[in-house]
Amino acid sequence: MTRPGYHLSILVLLLHAVTSIKVEKVKVPRVVRAGESARLECLYQEDGDKLYSLKWWRGDDQFYQYVPPSRNAFPVNGVAVNLSATSTLNSRSNGKEVVMLERVGLDSAGVYKCEVMADTSFQTEFREANMTVIYVPDGPPTIAPALGTHSHNITVGQRVTLRCSSRPANPPPLLTWLINGRHVNSSWVSVESPVFQRDLARVSSKLTFPVTPDLVVGGRGVEVTCIATQATREGHTTPLRASFPLHPSSPMSFWERIFSSGSSLHHRCCHPPLLLLLAALLCLLSPHLC
Beta strand 31-33 with 124-134: parallel, antiparallel or unpaired? Predict the structure, then answer.
């Protein structure tokens, strides 16, 4: 004897085989800056059945529904649907539903899901994608000298200490130091723990380095640069730079120029006694240099 509902089950299976609907692709921006708009796209295929409904979710919260021909948005924290722009973008679409989110914030981040339901079989299918929201600093970092360091008063042998601080951001920025365009010795850098306020972080880094003769050879100054970047799934954000000039308090002396690792004599002759002898001869021949 055939069990009750057996034929109904067979009918439902056959209906699913003949009529179906599927989500082909979901397009969600991987990284969005806070304050910008975000465009969500759901591409679906009607295989022998019509679309009954299309819904968008952020996590477990539904914020949008399309039941042809009406479109509705539902209040969800951090998700603001621009229904006017959404309706305009979908006026001629076929097999694609676009939803525009406006004024994206840090609380807009999460997993977004598009779910479709068939009109006849009530079959449902969904796809999802993650969206990350970042808050970019509103300007470059700032560099300040520590007590005893002055931008126009450095001498060979002095130890200079500078502090670089980022603007509020999320995720916390990464700070990198350069001296005259070159990366510094990592032992000169100490990074402080981020300070959070309202989900935004300030990061500070301290640089302490010795002023060597080769840095100020020829009386040139020292250019210290601090670069702030943010790491995301797409890579790093555009670097934001701050520079701090350091100038020698007086021109290098004759002896500093002779024994500087950047001088031509130092490169051509590696023996200090011979350098000393050459320096003495130069003093005898040209006393004004000494």
Answer: parallel
CB count within 10 Å of CB 165 equals 20
Rounded-to-integer distance, Cα 221 and Cα 246, Å? 6
- pTM, 2 dp: 0.70
The token pair that represents 189 in the structure block: 């850098």
Show the tokens assigned to 21. Answer: 């609907």
Domains and CATH numbers, the chain: 20-134 (2.60.40.10), 142-252 (2.60.40.10), 253-290 (no CATH)
Name residues whose C-beta falls within 8 Å of residue 239's C-beta, 6 or more positions apart in sequence.
227, 228, 229
Which amino acid is located at 239 in the chain?
P
The DSSP result for 99-159, as a single string, is EEE-S--GGG-EEEEEEEEESSS--EEEEEEEEEEEB--SS--EEEEPTT-BTTBB-TTPE
Q: Residues 93-109: what's their mean pLDDT? A: 92
Q: pLDDT tens digits, residue range 176-212?
A: 999 999 999 999 999 999 999 889 999 999 999 999 8
Q: Of all residues in the chain, what percent carry a pLDDT higher than 90?
A: 57
**What is the distance between the alpha carbons of residues 172 and 230, in angstroms, rounded to a whole number?**
7
Q: Identify whether the C-beta of residue 113 lies closer than 8 Å to the C-beta of residue 56.
A: yes
